[in-house]
Input
Amino acid sequence: MKFYYTFGSSKTLYLPKNVPHFYLEEEKLNPMKRLAILLITVITFVSCGDEVEFNSPSIQGNKDYVLWRAEFFNASIDINGYLTITGGNNVETLELKIPSVAVGRYILGDVNSMEARFTDADGTVFSTNNRPDPSVTLYPELGEINLDEILNNTFSGTFRFNAFDASGLRVVNFSGTTQEDPLNGGIFYKVPLTSGSIPAVVFTCDDADEETALAQAAFDATTAPELTYISSDDYTTACQVFVQAMLQQRTYCNDLNGALEIKINDLNPCPFPCEFAVANRDVAEAAFELATIGNYVLACTDYQFYLQEQIEFCGDPDGTIQLELDSINCGDDDGDGIPNAFEDFNGDGMFDDDTDGDGIFNYLDDDDDGDGILTIHEAKDENGNPIDTDGDGDVDYLDNDDDGDSILTQNENADPNMDGNPADAVDTDGDTIPDYLDNM
Output
């Protein structure tokens, strides 16, 4: 007795009854060879005289070592671009789901987006996404769906899997007789698309890999060594994007060794690490301790900010961070460009110094030396620090004779319009140096 099949043409291949198993590496087979070899292995389980024909659309396979055929079959694509191949008869239904309408190999039993599901006559659902009970097996075999051809809105390929019921104790097998015979599971041939449409742009595992790589690069950049501070907002935002990219990568690419799941669990929900908050605080504290009048307010507010973040992300069980935060004065109450912290000249912690003796404490006096030039307009260097024009040891904003020529600044027409800004100061000798700064 011989078996035969026809595959897409009128040519018939005759095989002897006792066809041996084909121990072949699947990745070395092109799609059409895989279809043909699978068909050969399927028909070895058909009783004498049975005929297997694939001139027309079909789904069939080796279910629990017995040939199973679908009497109806169709394909659908949902709004997410997932492809589902469905076949069944009056009592049983087989569904094969993959996340991309793209030729390729999709591993089952690892992520929910790739699934084989079989519903039997009593309504029991067997799924590759159900885990087996440990009494059955600790290491369930991963199945696969191979989409080998997409042609004129039809789909052809192969599949093999073990699917368990919800208890994990019962199994439906479409995996053949041995692990060395991976193609001996099932085949779908030219199953037509009846619902949905192939997306104009098909998202695949390669796309997911690329998006994850970009997201990781952006995330890594938030903690680059050259940064002065690590922004908690940038870190959290980039981390969340990275996590979503990895979740998407698992959906489209699997996660066979669990590496993605470990990364996701380590990062999610992306709290800002305490060690980064401490590092930021240390940098800010060092800058604050070295601050001058010109950069004090910025350094001080930075220090306050990172102390507060340290509390937020690390806690402050003994309250010492809050005490430090409360002790800092970043203010400039008179808005004269001299922070309050620099207006306690005798260092007694009391802001009661009054340089010009006008009864207004310096930290509230916008003209500290009373020379008619507002402190904020007194001479400064390129870093915003006050300078001492005449070199007498008093910086100009505290010196009522800025050029040391024994004529008080207020008597050298430093501010004819009396608005406190010496932009209109008189320059008698025309040397571009106004008289109140010119001792010649």
Remarks:
- The longest helix spans residues 232-253.
